[in-house]
Amino acid sequence: MKNLSPSDPRNFRQQANVHCANCDGGYTQLGSPKLFSVHNSWLFFPWHRWYLYFFEKICQNLIDDDTFTLPFWNWDAPEGMQIPSIYNSDLTSPLYDCFRNPDHLPPTVINLDWSYGDKPVDPNIQIENNLSIMHTQMITQSKTPFDFFGKAYRAGDDTPPIGIAGQIEQTPHNHVHSWTGTISDQTNPIDLGALYSSARDPVFYAHHSNDDRMWTIWLNKLGGSNFTDRDWLFTNFIFYNEEAKPVRVSTKDCLDTTKLGYKYEDVPIPWLDVSAKPKPRAKAKTLPSAPGPAQVFPITLDKPINVIVKRPKKSGTGSSEEILVIEGIEYDERNYVKFNVYINEEDVNACRPNNTEFLGSFSNLPHGHQMIVNTSKTFRISQVLEELGARDYDKVLVTLIPKSNPVKINGIKIEFEKS
Ligand code: C2O
């Protein structure tokens, strides 16, 4: 693929450009001047599945072997938690890419919620953290198709910001990108570290096969279901096929992987029963005093903040599932942005991702053109508060820890889930 003529759409670089063009405003939506984007929404999973499908078809065709299938990089299991050696052992291999973080080469264990500047920790601790992160993202925080796939992105909508993205796209997907690809300079990440260039690294395709595998696990083992919304089912995408001809496909035709010619090997899924645990405490917790949202926001998050947030009172019918909403998060799309979120924890430095008190993070992979976006981030907290023994508290302590250039935040609230 690397040796094909640059004018051939099956050329490796051109395949990478297909990804770039679909994520960085290379096309407008059909019948609308709005830009099209395959990230940060419910299109993430179907578009990337089709992208891998055609990449695989092209490989099969070029090597004249239709039994060839893409491998998956199972970063969700301890044996897979480093860059797979086939991509890294031989500098002359076409699978090698020099734009990977030199501090993260094997045997460094991946950090599935990595922030720029995080240093590698003890591998066994990192593995425990990663398994809890997987459990949290796939199970605790992914109850509905909107949680898992992302929110709706329909014809005529603006390019969606990261707040619309599904749980898995945000974490671990984005962090596998930035952990692998980002070299020290935050302002100019390339290859896996930025969306436009990410498919230039051959390990991209193995990373995304595992993201795609999460879709099948969520459906087959965790009781998840696909959307039945016609706007999702009938969204069309255009790709080049193995004959270098453009073809139009839609979401509804990629839902059954056996029709696309593959199914995932049934390997162990060690995170299924490794949930996060509350930090051990000597006595019941009393919350420290901290200001409320009205005194804190709006704020530019340039240092850690504590906020005491009131819980809503239940009245009448409707969902009793409580959602923590961090709202009005403003930043420039071209920037790497990340902050971590904790609940009912004063000593966040002593808290790890395998503690229930760590809710997760908000992060943006750099892409696009200069554009200030305004988005929000939600966490399901009912089960978390239950596990923390905080069911009867009328307020909670929320701590935000910045992990990047400052981002502006306009508020925090807790509300019941809207149906
Ligand atoms: Cu289209 Cu992992 O990105």
Total number of beta strands: 11
Please report the first level of CATH classification, the CATH class of the largest domain.
Mainly Alpha
CATH architecture of the largest domain: Orthogonal Bundle
Mean pLDDT: 93
Q: Report the uncertain regions.
A: none
Q: Structural class, from secondary structure content?
A: alpha+beta
End-to-end CA span: 47 Å
Helix content: 10-25%
What is the CATH superfamily label of the largest domain?
Di-copper center containing domain from catechol oxidase
Number of domains: 2
Shape: globular
How much of the sequence lies in strands comes to 15-25%
Keywords: Copper, Disulfide bond, Metal-binding, Oxidoreductase, Thioether bond
Family: Belongs to the tyrosinase family.
InterPro entries: Di-copper_centre_dom_sf (IPR008922), Polyphenol_oxidase_C (IPR022740), Polyphenol_oxidase_cen (IPR022739), Tyrosinase/Hemocyanin (IPR050316), Tyrosinase_Cu-bd (IPR002227)
Organism: Abeliophyllum distichum
Provide a descriptive summary of the structure in words:
- By secondary structure, the protein is α+β, with helices and mostly antiparallel strands.
- It has two domains: 12-273, di-copper center containing domain from catechol oxidase (Orthogonal Bundle), CATH 1.10.1280.10; 293-416, Sandwich (Jelly Rolls).
- The chain is 24% helix and 16% strand.
- The chain has nine helices and eleven strands.
- It has helices at 12-23, 44-63, 123-140, 145-149, 167-181, 203-220, 230-233, 293-296, 382-387; strands at residues 236-240, 246-250, 299-300, 305-310, 322-332, 337-343, 358-364, 372-380, 395-402, 408-409, 411-416.
- The strands form four sheets. It has a four-stranded antiparallel β-sheet.
- Strand 1 and strand 2 form a beta hairpin.
- Helix 2 crosses helix 6, helix 3 (123-140) packs antiparallel against helix 5 (167-181) and helix 5 runs antiparallel to helix 6.
- The model has no long low-confidence stretch (mean pLDDT 93).
- Bound molecules: CU-O-CU linkage.
- The site of CU-O-CU linkage has 9 residues, from helix 1 and helix 5.
- Belongs to the tyrosinase family.
- This is Polyphenol oxidase I.
- GO terms for molecular function: metal ion binding; oxidoreductase activity.
- Keywords: Copper, Disulfide bond, Metal-binding, Oxidoreductase, Thioether bond.
- Its cofactor is Cu(2+).
